[in-house]
Design goal:
The structure holds 2 protein chains of 2 kinds. By secondary structure, chain A is mainly β. Helices cover 0% and strands 43% of the residues of chain A. Chain A is built from no helices and 9 strands. The two termini of chain A are 14 Å apart. The mean pLDDT of chain A is 90. In chain B, the strands form 10 sheets. In chain B, strands 3-2-1-7-19 form a 5-stranded parallel beta sheet, with helices on one face. In chain B, helix 12 packs across helix 14 and helix 22 packs across helix 25. The longest helix of chain B has 18 residues. Chain B is elongated. The mean pLDDT of chain B is 91. The chains are: A mainly beta, B alpha/beta. Chains A and B meet through strand 1, strand 2 and strand 5 of A and helix 18 and strand 37 of B. Strand 2 of chain A pairs parallel with strand 37 of chain B. The complex binds flavin-adenine dinucleotide (FAD), iron/sulfur cluster and FE2/S2 (inorganic) cluster. The site of iron/sulfur cluster (SF4) has 13 residues of chain B, from loops.
């Protein structure tokens, strides 16, 4: 497992996503109204929309392209749509934001 | 300063008109009401029911003392206006009070007609008109036994029924040889008489009263034929006379009633008449349905929104005597040029007659089964042809098996005639508010609030609706799933409670989801901005990405940039700048848009602010719910057909209205002749130059729902084009749902309505005032961002690239 420091909490405005590239990965980071931080793969399961630019409401983001509603906790697209984005554990320590990348084994 | 409105007559018509005025504009008037009677406004119709013992006097109040207070109305009950000075614009009362008015409504109702025979002034002789008369009869019945009612019309029979219930013996005296001759034909009338005799009434027909006699109080009635009867109480119900004394004395034109035009205006400026005291096109009405219609029209006139005029009414009657069902409407007598369809079931005492003239239904009489009365009245009012009459209407009422009448009614059919409430309106209210009782329906819709004749239908409708029907009526359109409130309700609450932020709206109005969704947040953002121009700061987190980043997001996550070019006109210098920028930032595609602008496609998000800075041009708003472009043709300057300077006007329009936020995108076009090269016929606002003027089209759309625009009006000058367009845009801003294009909005609210609003000079002025306030608060968003480092950081910068290095 790897833990990557992606920035500071100040760099994450509430309810506005930010995009970060880690190697080949492109993640969307969110800080909710009540200061939880989530990281998900920045590609909508529908047609690859830039989730980091969606409207954030509670633990959900609405994709800016066709308004799919994606849960930030588990990555599930909400009914009637189907699909899932990868989620990553994000933590805050001393004002710094870290993302944990699961070793994707063989 | 509020204008002063005075109402003389605290009765059913006058107060209803005040209610309508309050609905239109709560704030405009300081209202004073005078009423001779000592009570607040009550339901005169139900006096019959009070006399018959079905209702108490306390229950027939329509508007309580608190209602007057809550609405800031000064009520002088038990005080009579004696004098109007229309030079000074003031009224005087019998208590010496003097009150000034700007507008004066006369609703003095009518006086019962008292036969001019000897003895008419004896104690024990009464009319049947107000609470006092009603109480007097009830009092009399406690000591005396024998009553005589003079008059076999509606009122007389209702009084007679009441007196029977009070335990009196009742003789009904009538001058004609059949009852209710003004509402019934002889057949129905005979059936009625038979039924009432069964109930215990005694009829003396073709009797003309000569005198009332008695020593100290009335003891009997003598007729012209020499015969006489004994009576301890005599009720005169022989007709009413419009109460016009005050008007006549004050120099207002009077015939039988106070003469009014189609807008209820008398011949004296600022004085109006409504109700039983008014005479319209030669007719004086004595039933509430027409009076309420008049009240509605008058309310608009008084509020300065002269709209629909009053054209007169088709009236219908129903007798409020339990156990007897009679109904009549329109032309009910057979006569020259009419034919009729009749059903006469003597055994069951059912009689139905529909009168037809030139193939159209013009009148009807029903006896014994009146359930279809309402439907017939609608048909008469619409002038339906005979074919529309279904056979079931004329079938005898069978026991069961008949389809519920309410199910067959159309949504536009009226259920409550007095208050003009349709089936659709009732069903809507039931569905929306989950109503369960007739009383609730009455409180929400006014249906059955007056004569109560439709109570049965309302009950049936309720029952019907609580079944499967309820789903057919779309529960009102809420903004989204996060709330039960409609757009109108939300806007009203925002204004009333002065809510200033999206969060406030949601928490005060009890949003189901604390942070809302992608539908309501942008909508609320828009509404707040529209309501508080200059005061409200948009909440960026609630904006759709396009409007947050001021560029259009494309399928691949890149953006496109369209700088403003007023009227589609550009210069060599601008073109050079655009070309330089395109090269510098490796813009993959440069394309001309449908709105005659240049689009730079495939731009990276983080490059946007720098591109704008390099361009140095204002934002073209190609991404916004706002004015996008004004497309123009070349016009008079170059085109050989052009009659007007379309380019010049287009530029002026774009410069005036740019940055104005609207519920959805707005496109405009100006063509200089009907060849319409700018395609003005499919724009939200399209202007077409014609010889000597401009035609303005609205509500067009070239998009998903292709719709040709409607001609709003033709004007002479550019100045007027600007005014009309501005007022149109502002009215659209204020009354459309968020994300509703003008094409849908025009269809929903109706072109006629929009015309009414825009052509009203006062309203147009007010709209333009609000529009200019909104416009003066706008700034160019590109510049703002270019000059604001922090905004660039929050909105356009990503966290950058990170190398995946193991930390622990
Ligand atoms: C017993 C009865 C049963 C009825 N049944 C029905 C029915 O079933 N269906 C139906 O549609 N209609 C019915 N009507 C008729 C209906 O009640 C009237 O058409 C309606 O009330 C008229 O309203 P209005 O405001 O014009 O007059 P009103 O309601 O009579 O109001 C006029 C008021 O003005 C006051 N006033 C007059 N002059 C002055 C002055 N100078 N200063 C201050 N105040 C003044 C009077 O005191 C009165 O209160 C019935 C009427 C009666 C009496
Ligand atoms: S609309 Fe008329 S004036 Fe304008 S370019 Fe076309 S033909 Fe010429
Ligand atoms: S790409 Fe996200 S909803 Fe279509």
């Amino acid at each position: 497992m790897m833990r990557v420091k992606v920035g500071t909490i100040e760099q994450l405005p509430k309810r506005l996503g930010k995009c970060v590239h880690i190697g080949v990965l492109e993640l969307a980071l969110f800080r909710t109204q009540d200061d939880r931080v989530y990281a998900v793969e920045n590609r909508c399961p529908h047609k690859g929309g830039d989730l980091s630019q969606g409207i954030v409401s509670g633990e959900y983001v609405f994709c800016p392209l066709h308004d799919w509603k994606i849960c930030l906790r588990d990555g599930q697209a909400q009914a009637p749509d189907e699909g899932c984005v990868k989620t990553y554990r994000a933590t805050v320590e001393d004002g710094c934001v870290y993302v944990e990348l699961q070793e994707t084994g063989e | 300063m509020k204008r002063k409105l005075v109402l003389v007559g605290n009765g059913m018509a006058g107060v209803r008109c005040i209610e309508e005025i309050l609905k239109l504009n709560r704030e405009a008037f300081e209202i004073t009401i005078f009423g001779s009677e000592p009570h607040p406004n009550y339901n005169r119709i139900l006096l019959s029911k009070v006399l018959q013992g079905d209702t108490s006097i306390d229950e027939i109040t329509l508007n309580s003392w608190e209602w007057y207070e809550q609405n800031g109305i000064r009520l002088f009950a038990g005080e009579t206006v004696t004098d109007i000075d229309h030079e000074e614009q003031l009224v005087r009362t019998d208590r010496g009070r003097v009150v000034e008015y700007d507008e004066l409504i006369l609703a003095t109702g009518s006086n019962p007609f008292i036969l001019p025979v000897p003895g008419a002034d004896l104690p024990g002789v009464t009319a049947f008109r107000d609470i006092q008369d009603c109480e007097r009869m009830i009092e009399y019945a406690k000591t005396y036994k024998k009553a005589a009612v003079i008059g076999g019309g509606l009122l007389g029979l209702e009084a007679a029924r009441g007196l029977l219930n009070l335990g009196m013996d009742v003789d009904v005296i009538h001058i004609f040889d059949y009852l209710m001759e003004r509402q019934l034909d002889p057949t129905a009338s005979k059936l009625l008489q038979r039924e009432l005799e069964k109930q215990g009434m005694n009829f003396l027909l073709r009797k003309e009263t000569a005198e009332l006699f008695g020593n100290g109080r009335v003891e009997g009635v003598r007729f012209k034929d020499g015969t006489s009867i004994a009576a301890d109480l005599v009720v005169m119900a022989v007709g009413i006379r419009p109460n016009v004394d005050l008007a006549r004395r004050s120099g207002i034109a009077v015939n039988r009633g106070i003469i009014v035009n189609d807008y209820l205006e008398t011949n004296v400026p600022h004085i109006y008449a409504v109700g039983e005291c008014a005479e319209h096109r030669g007719v004086v009405y004595g039933l509430v349905a027409p009076l309420y219609e008049q009240g509605k029209v008058l309310a608009q006139v008084i509020c300065g929104r002269k709209g629909k005029s009053y054209e007169g009414s088709v009236v219908s009657t129903q007798l409020k005597v339990s156990g007897v069902d009679v109904f009549s409407a329109g032309e009910f007598m057979d006569g020259e040029g009419t034919e009729s369809i009749k059903l006469y079931d003597e055994a069951r005492s059912v009689y139905k007659k529909v009168v037809v003239r030139e193939g159209k239904i013009v009148g009807a009489v029903l006896f014994g089964d009146t359930s279809e009365g309402r439907k017939l009245l609608d048909m008469i009012q619409r002038g339906d042809s005979l074919e529309a009459l279904s056979l079931s209407l004329l079938a005898p009422a069978s026991s069961g098996g008949k389809e519920s009448l309410v199910a067959t009614m159309a949504d536009t059919d009226v259920v409550c005639g007095c208050n003009g409430v349709t089936k659709g309106a009732i069903c809507q209210a039931i569905a929306e508010h989950g109503l369960k009782t007739v009383a609730e329906v009455r409180d929400y819709t006014n249906a059955s609030r007056s004569c109560g004749g439709c109570k049965g239908l309302v009950a049936e409708l309720l029952e019907h609706m609580l079944g499967e029907e309820v789903n057919r009526y779309t529960v009102k359109e809420t903004i989204c799933g996060c709330t039960n409130l409609s757009r109108e309700e939300v806007i009203a609450a925002i204004k009333e409670k002065r809510l200033m932020t999206v969060k406030e709206v949601m928490s005060v109005l009890g949003w189901k989801k604390e942070e809302g969704c992608s539908k309501c947040r942008p909508a609320l953002n828009y509404y707040l901005g529209m309501l508080y121009p200059g005061e409200y700061d948009e909440e960026v987190e609630s904006l759709f990405v396009n409007e947050r980043l001021h560029a259009n997001i494309q399928a691949d996550g890149t953006y496109s940039v369209v700088p403003r070019m007023y009227g589609g006109v550009t210069t060599a210098e601008q073109l050079r700048k655009i070309a330089d920028v395109a090269e510098k930032y490796n813009v993959p595609m440069i394309k001309l848009t449908g709105g005659q602008r240049i689009d730079l496609l495939g731009v990276k998000k983080e490059d946007l602010p720098r591109i704008w800075a390099d361009l140095g041009m204002p934002s073209g708003y190609a991404y916004a719910k706002a004015l996008r472009t004004v497309k123009t043709c070349v016009g008079k300057q170059f085109c050989r057909f052009g009659t007007q300077d379309s380019t010049g006007l287009g530029i002026r329009m774009e410069q005036t209205f740019e940055r104005l936020k609207t519920p959805h995108k707005v496109k405009m076009a100006v063509s200089a002749c009907p060849r319409n090269c700018a395609e003005s016929g499919i724009k939200d606002v399209g202007v077409v130059g014609v010889e000597g003027g401009w035609e303005i089209y609205v509500g067009g759309n070239g998009g998903t729902h292709l719709r040709a625009a409607d001609l709003l009006c033709t004007v002479k000058t550019e100045e007027e084009v600007m005014e009309m367009t501005g007022a149109f845009l502002q009215y659209y801003r204020e009354s459309a749902h968020y994300l509703e294009r003008t094409s849908k909005w025009v269809e929903r609210v109706g072109l006629e309505h929009i015309r009414e609003v825009l052509f009203d000079v006062e309203m147009r002025r007010a709209l333009l005032e609000r529009l200019h306030k909104a416009l003066s608060a706008t700034k160019d968003p590109w510049r703002e961002i270019v000059e604001n480092e922090r905004l660039q950081q929050t909105l356009f910068c990503d966290l950058g690239d990170k190398e995946p290095v193991p930390v622990e």
